[in-house]
């Protein structure tokens, strides 16, 4: 089986047996690119979106003779360049967490003990200064913190987060987000796998909504799924109300009812087709609204299932701690 792997603008021809495992391929790629297997991400046609067992054969993984593969990952040389600084940063974070744990008054993540809406926010934004463009990372964190839809759900659900920061390179490289101690600190994967740019804002914000749900529920159970779906709906409805120029959803429980055209636009975005919009415009308003919501919820469920695989938060919930 002849394969061509591209990495950082360079191509590597490989010849392997169809029964060779993915581990064999990853080992060869490590020799060629100095990228360790845990940090390798292989992109090719037919690849499953789920992490694959490295002991399955190349054929079972969907690889075929003549196939081209793109390798994304950080090299050992790059890793060595930031390990020392990153270790120091993590050490300081650990010391700060220990000090916070010993403090007489500890921040409650759900905000139940706070009396003012001003406390339902991110109290500190911290980019990683040893990574490229820390000012850009801070701008992204600030945009998330100032996002009107995010502020809306934080006030409505009384969420308070001590620190909003980013996941360091190679700190749980398989994760997109992490919520520590039910809101004491939320870490988000802001950068691309190569750390040469930043992920899209909407992608990072959806991860943030996922991690905010962990302020209340620790594990990915039905309680978590219900609240997480609610947060995403409230963000979408809030922004839809702003775009439509109608009453912005406040904290009084107002219900936003989208127009037929806005529903059609939403349906088109969900299905990715103009014909879907035309079909949506048929029937009464209640039927249109139902179809929009069903299509959106199906898409969100699929995205959430993938996101749960990239979330490192689990354990006791904030509500359990309150009791």
TrEMBL record:
GO terms for molecular function: proteasome binding. Residues 1-72 form the Ubiquitin-like domain. Residues 113-301 form the WLM domain. Residues 299-323 are annotated as: Disordered. It comes from the Eukaryota. Pfam families: ubiquitin, WLM. Coiled coil: none annotated. This is WLM domain-containing protein. It comes from Rhodocollybia butyracea.
């Amino acid at each position: 089986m002849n394969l061509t792997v591209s990495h950082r603008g360079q191509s590597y021809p490989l010849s392997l047996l169809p029964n060779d495992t993915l581990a064999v391929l990853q080992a060869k790629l490590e020799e060629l690119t100095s990228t360790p297997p845990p940090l390798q991400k292989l992109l090719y046609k037919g690849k499953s979106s789920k992490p694959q067992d490295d002991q399955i054969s190349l054929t079972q993984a969907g690889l075929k003779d003549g196939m081209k593969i793109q390798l994304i990952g950080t090299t050992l040389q790059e890793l060595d360049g930031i390990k020392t600084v990153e270790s120091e940063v993590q050490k300081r974070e650990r010391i700060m967490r220990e000090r916070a744990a010993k403090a007489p008054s500890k921040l409650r993540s759900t905000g139940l003990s706070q009396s003012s809406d001003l406390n339902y926010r991110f109290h500190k934004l911290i980019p990683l200064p040893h990574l490229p463009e820390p000012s850009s990372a801070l701008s992204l964190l600030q945009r998330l913190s100032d996002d009107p839809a995010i502020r809306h759900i934080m006030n409505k659900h009384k969420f308070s987060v001590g620190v909003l920061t980013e996941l360091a390179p190679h700190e749980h490289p398989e994760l997109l987000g992490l919520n520590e101690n039910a809101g004491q600190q939320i870490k988000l994967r802001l950068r691309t796998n190569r750390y040469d740019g930043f992920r899209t804002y909407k992608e990072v914000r959806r991860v943030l909504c996922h991690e905010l749900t962990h302020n209340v529920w620790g594990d990915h159970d039905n309680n978590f799924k219900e609240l997480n779906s609610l947060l995403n709906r409230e963000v979408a409805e809030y922004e839809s109300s702003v775009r439509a120029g109608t009453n912005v959803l406040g904290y009084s429980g107002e219900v936003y009812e989208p127009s037929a055209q806005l529903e059609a636009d939403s349906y088109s975005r969900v299905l990715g087709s103009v014909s879907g919009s035309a079909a949506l415009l048929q029937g009464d308003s209640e039927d249109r609204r139902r179809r929009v919501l069903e299509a959106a919820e199906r898409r969100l469920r699929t995205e959430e299932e993938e996101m749960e695989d990239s979330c490192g938060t689990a354990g006791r919930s904030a509500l359990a701690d309150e009791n």
